[in-house]
Amino acid sequence: MRNFLFIVLFLLCGMSLSAQTITPGRVINKETRKPLAYAQIQTSDGRQILTNIDGSFEISIPGDSLSIKISYVGFKPITTQVHKSTRYLQIGLSPSYEQLNTVLISSGADPAEELIKRTIARREHNDPEKVLGGFSYTSYSKFIIDNEYNQMELRADSTSATIETIIDEGRAYLSEKLSEHFYTEKEGRKEKVTGIKTAGFEEPVYNVLAMEVNPLSLYKNDYQLYKTEYAGPLATNALKNYEYRILDTTSTERPAYMVYFKPRREKVVAGLEGILYLDTLNLAIQKAKAQLLGAVKLEVIHNYKYYPEKDIWFPSEQITTIRPGSGGKEIAVFGGTISVGAVQQKKGILSSIFGSEAISNDLYLTSSIRNFNVNLDFKGKISNPGAEIDVEEMAAKRDSAFWIQNRKMKFTVRDEATRKKVESLLDAGNVRRKIEVKNAIKTGSYPIGFWDADLSKIFKFNNYEGIRLGFGGRTNNRFSGKFNLNGYTTYGFKDEVVKYGIGSQIYLNKRNGTNLNFFFSRDIQEIASFDYIKGRNTFSILEPRFVNINFFYNYRTYWSSLEHRITPKMNAELRLGREEIWQIQDYNFIKDGNIYQDYDLNTATLSFLWQPFSKFLSTPEKNILLEKIFPQFTGQIQQSFSTLGGDFNFTRIGLKAEHEIKRLDQSRTEFILEGNYSFGDLPLTHAFHAYPNNPNRSKIFRRFSVAGRNSFETMYFNEFYSDRQAMLHIRHQLRPFRISDSFRPELVFISRHSIGDFDDIDSHRNIRFNTLEHGYSEAGMEINKIFAGFGLSAAYRYGAYHLPTFKQNFSFKFTLQLQL
C-alpha cells in the first residue's frame, strides 16, 4: 500500500512537471558582454523575475510559449517570445544613451545615495531591536544538503525502480529545528530550542545550531553569515563600502523602492551584492536579496511582514542557499573556510563532514526559516539569559506528532527518504567517528575506544629534560557517563626521571559544568610561574617558551577541587591542595633566620573566567562556546597557610584582561593587560616572571627559536623576577597581503611593556636577578604565514633596560601558526 502511494504521488508530480518547462538564461550588456545584475523580466502572465548578480535567471513556461519583457535602468527594454523548445536564452540589452546623458548633465545629488542616507537615518525607527522594548516569536527551520539537478526519473511501469530511486536520491543531510525567540532591551536576544532532529543521528548535531545561518536583521553595521562578516548594506558607513542604484518602484499596496547595492571596495572590505526593497513611506526593509559569486554561489533572501499597529516590518522568512562556485571569493562554512572549488572537489569541506569521497557539482546547501506567533509587546523575563541558545532537555526526543503539528514548511517524500539515505551514508563514511574525533581534537585529545588520549603529553622538549615522551588522557562516556579517570606518565631522557599524575573527575551536573576533581602528581614546574586554572590553553601543538626553560623545581602535589559554571558566561573553580617542593638548582629561601631549600605548602586557590559578551549554547549535556567576543577576564587568588604542616603564609593575586578589535578589512588589534600581586612569605618558586623567551646565549642565531604570542622575546630567561608586576601586550595586524589565493602573509606590529618590583631580594640566596621598577619595553614585528604556517619575528629592546650592544637587544625568530 505504501509503495502504491509513493507511485501515485510521483506520477502526480511528473504530470505537473510535464505541464511546464524550465528555461535558463542570461541577460547581458550587448556592447560590453558583461552581465546585468537584477534586470527585470516581466512575463505575459503577470510574473516579475529578477536576474541574479551574474545576469542568470530561470523561467517556467506553462504552455507552448510565453511573452517576456526585459528592462534595466539605462538600457532599452526588449520584448521577446520564449518557446518551450528553447534550451537556453541569452538576451543582450543596448544602453540607452539618451537616459545616460540625462543622468550625466544632472548637477544634483545622486538620488540613490540620498535615499540610502535617509534610510540609514531611520534605522532607529525601523530596526525591531531598536524601536520595540521587547518581542517574541516562534520559528521553524529546515537545513538541507541536497543534489539540485539530479532529480528522480519517474516512469509508470517501474515500481521497484521508483522506490529504489527514492532511497538513492535522498538528501545527504537534513536537520529540523523548532525554537522560541525572545528579545528585551535589558537582556538582549535569546533562543530556546524546543525541538531538534537530525536525520541519521540519535543525538542532535549542535554544530548546526552554532552557525549564524539566518541573521535576523539587515540593519546592523556587520552582517554575519556562516562565520564570515560582511559590511552591512545599511551600516553607518555604508556609502563608503557600497554603490547604490534605484532600479524601480513596486506597485504593491505598500510601494517600495527597489535599490541595487554593490561592493565599492571589494578587495578591502567583504561585501555582498543584492537588492533592497525599501518602503516608500517609512523606508523600512520589506524584502532583501543578497548574493555572492566566487568559491561558492551564495544567495540570501529576507522576507518581512508589515504590522500596521506598530508601523514596522518584522522578519517573516529567510532562505540561504550555497552552491558550488568558480573561485575568487571565500566564505566560511562549518567553521572552516571554503577555498576555490572546494565544495565540488574530492575531500572538500562537505565531503569531510559527510564522508563521501566525491561531491557532485550540483550539490547545494540550503537553510530555510519561517517565523510565526509574533508578539511585538513581549514584556516577560528571559530565563538563563547568559546563554544565547538554550536547548530544552526534551528537544531531541520529540515524536512524529510534534513535528507534524509544528512544521511550517512542506515536508516532502524526499525529506522522508532522507532518513534511509543518511543512515547508509553515515555508516559507509564512518561519519559518527569523524565527528567524535573532530570534537575531541578541539580539546587536545584523540579518542581510542573508551580512552581520550592527551595529544599534549606525547612529545615535548626543554633544556633540562631534553626529549620528554609520554602518554596520558582520560576515560570518556564509553567507560562511564558519571565520572572519568585521568592521568599521564612522561619520561625525560636527559634528567632520566619519570613524571606522572593520576586523578578522577565526578560529574555532579553536566549542564552546569559542576564537577568534583581529585588529582595527585609528581612533576617539575618552572620557577616563578603563575598558571591560571581557568582560561588557560590546555592544548598546544607547540609551546615556544617551554623549549628554552632551564630553571625548574620538583614538586609532588595532592589536590581536590569543585568547579561550577555560575552562569554560561562565568566559570569558577575552588581548589584545595598540598605541595611538597624540593629544588633542582642550588636555591635557598631565608625566613626568620631559617634556611629553606625544601618546603611544603598548603594552599587554597579560587580561579574564574568571565566572558561577559561571548555567545554560548546551553545543551542538556554541556555548555558550548558559540563565539568568543572580547573583552574577557581571568582572575585567580591563592592563599598559602602556615598550618597543618605548611611552611609559609603568603597570598598571590592575578588578573588578566584580554580584548580584540576586529575590522571588516580583516585587520585586528589585540590587547592583553595583566597584573600580579603578592604579599607574605613568598619563595622565588612562587614569585612572578614576565614570560621571558630569550635563551641566554651571546649570538643572535644561537638564540634563534620559535617566538611566543604573549612573551617578551628580548627578555632573557631568569633575568627579572617580581613579587608585584603589570604587563601590557599590544599586537596590531594589518589586513593580509593578497599575493595570490594561497599566499596571504600577515604583517603584525608588536609593542610590549612591563613594570614590577621585589621587596626582599636578600631573602633569596644563590641566585641573582633584576627587578622591573624602571619599566621594561620592547617593540617588534612579525610576518606570519609565509609558508605552511611559518613566519619570521624580529624584536628590539629599548628604554631603561637597554643593553650596550645591538645583538644583546635584538631577537630574530620563527613564528608558527597552526590551526586544527
Automatic annotation (TrEMBL):
Annotated signal sequence range: 1-21
Heme among keywords: no
Keywords, comma-separated and alphabetical: Carboxypeptidase, Hydrolase, Protease, Signal
Highest taxon of source: Bacteria
GO molecular function: carboxypeptidase activity
InterPro entries: CarboxyPept-like_regulatory (IPR008969), DUF5686 (IPR043741)
Coiled coil: none
Pfam family, one: DUF5686
Protein name: DUF5686 and carboxypeptidase regulatory-like domain-containing protein
